[in-house]
Amino acid sequence: MRDLIQSAIKGHNADYVEVRLEEGRSTHIRYSGKELEDIGSSTSLGGSARAAVGGGWGFVCFNDLTGLREKVSLAVRQARMVGGERIHLAPVEPRVDLVPPHLKKDPALVPLGEKKALLDEYNRIMWGVAGIQSSSIIYGDSSRKVYFATSEGTYIEQEKVDVATYLSAMARDGAEIQQAGLSLGSNGDFSFVESLHQEARDVADKAVKLLKAPPVKGGEYTVVLDPVLAGVFIHEAFGHLSEADHVYENDRLREIMVLGRSFGGPHLNVVDGAAIPGLRGSYRYDDEGVPSTRTYLIKEGTLVGRLHSRETAARMGEPPSGNARAISHRFPPIVRMTNTFIEAGETSFDDLISDIKEGVYVCNWHGGMTSFEMFTFSGGETYMIRNGKIAEMLRPVMLSGNLFTTLHNLEAVGNDLDMNQGGGCGKGGQSPLPVSNGSPHIRISKCLVGGT
C-alpha cells in the first residue's frame, strides 16, 4: 500500500498533495420499541486525494483504488481552478509510523448473534418495567484503518476501533409522557456492552418516576451540573467556539476570542486533547498527520489556546494542535474537537451544595442548541437542592443563557472529574464523529432555569 500511495503523489506540480486510503468495517443494530428495526455488518474500501495549488484546494474521493495517480492529478487540476489568497500550511516534521488500534475486547471477535442477544436482554428489561410505552436501542461498532501519505514525506498507517451504545425508554400515564436515556461508548473495548442490565432497568425506572415528578418554578437559581451535563455544556457551548476555522471566518468571534482575555475565575481550566490515552477521541495522529496534543483552551480563567488544522494554524500564526479530523475518506479533514473537558478542582460535591438554600441539581441531558454565545440545554434528570441537601426529583428542565456570562458565574469546580464517552459530534455534514467530553460537578450562580 505504501508503494502504491507514494508513487501516486510524486511529480505533481502542486504546493502540497496528500492521499488517504481507508479500510473500514462496521456493525449496526437498532431497535424501535420491541421490534428489531435494523441489523447488519458491512465493509468498505476507499480513499481520497487532496491538493493545494496557489489559493485553492482540490479534493477527490473514490471507492476504487485503480488509477490512483490520475485521481491525484484530478485533485491538482481542481485546485488550479480556485483563486484567492495563497494557502499556507503550518510546518510539521514528516513522520513515518505504524499505529495499532487501542484494544481491550475487540468487537470484531464477538459474533453478531451474541451482540443481538445482549441487546434483546436489555430491551426485555426495559419493557419489564410497568408504564413503559416505547423504547429505543442503538448499537454500533467500527474499525477504520487509514493509510496516509503526503508530498512532504509523511507516511502513517493508523487503525482505530470505536464502540457506542444508546438506551432510551419512554413512559406514559394518560397524556403525560416522559423519557430517560443513557449513551455510552469506548475506544476499542466491547466489554462495557456486556454488563448494562442494571443500567437498562435504571433508564426505564427513571422514565416512569418522572411521570410523578413536579415541574420546577422557573427563574434564576444556583445550579449544580453533574459531570455528564457539564461536559456536554463545555463541548457544545465553548468547544465549538474554540475551533479556529470558526474564529478566523467570523469577524465578531475574532473580536471576542482573543488570547489573554478573561473568561472565568482562576479555578476554571478547560482542555482538549487527543493525546489523552484510551478515550473515544484519542489518537496518535490527526488526519493531516499532525501528532496529537493536549491543548489548554482556558487556563486559570484566561483564554490561552484554540484548536487548529495546519491551515488555520498558519493563518493565525499559532502552532498546529492536531485537531484536523475527517469522519471518513469521503470528506476532507476539518477542525474538530477530540476529548474536551473541565479539569478537576478541589471542592467536594458535599461542599458544592452545602450552602445552597434553594437551588437545582441537573444531571445527564436530552438535547440542546447553541447560537454563537447563547445556549439552551435540556437536562435529563433534575432535583431540587434545599438547605444544602439533594431533595425531590423534578421534571426535566431547560437551562439557557449567555456562555460568557455563565462562565464568569461558574463559581466552583468539583474534584470528581468524569469523562462521558457516549454520543458523537456533528459539524460540516460529518456526524457522528467519536469524541468524549467531561467535567467534575460544577456550580453556577444566577442560571436561568425553565420547566418543560
Write down the domain tally. Answer: 2
Structural class: alpha+beta
Q: Estimate the global geometry from the Cα principal axes.
A: globular
Radius of gyration over alpha carbons? 23 Å
Q: Please state roughly what percent of the residues sit in beta strands, choosing from under 5%, 5-15%, 15-25%, 25-35%, 35-45% or over 45%.
A: 35-45%
Give me the number of helical elements. Answer: 10
Helix percentage range: 10-25%
How confident is the prediction overall: mean pLDDT?
96
Work out the oligomeric state of the chains in this entry.
single chain
* Uncertain residue ranges: none
Distance between the termini: 55 Å
Number of strands: 24
Instruction: Note the main sheet.
Output: 7 strands, mixed
Structure notes:
The protein has two domains: 2-210, PmbA/TldD superfamily (PmbA/TldD fold, 2-Layer Sandwich), CATH 3.30.2290.10; 219-451, no CATH class. Strands 1, 2, 3, 4, 5, 6 and 7 form a seven-stranded mixed beta sheet that branches. It has a six-stranded mixed beta sheet with strand order 11-10-9-14-23-20, covered by helices on one side. A five-stranded mixed barrel has the order 8-15-16-18-24. Helix content is 21%, strand content 42%. It is of the alpha+beta class and 452 residues long. It has helices at 2-9, 68-80, 112-127, 197-210, 227-239, 244-249, 251-256, 310-316, 349-353, 403-408, and strands spanning 16-32, 35-53, 56-62, 96-99, 132-150, 155-173, 176-187, 219-225, 270-273, 294-299, 302-303, 324-325, 334-335, 339-342, 358-371, 374-386, 389-394, 397-402, 410-413, 418-420, 425-427, 430-433, 436-439, 442-451. A hairpin with a 2-residue loop joins strand 1 (16-32) and strand 2 (35-53). The chain starts with a helix and ends with a strand. The radius of gyration is 23 Å and the shape is globular. The longest helix is centred in the N-terminal third of the chain and has 16 residues, at 112-127.
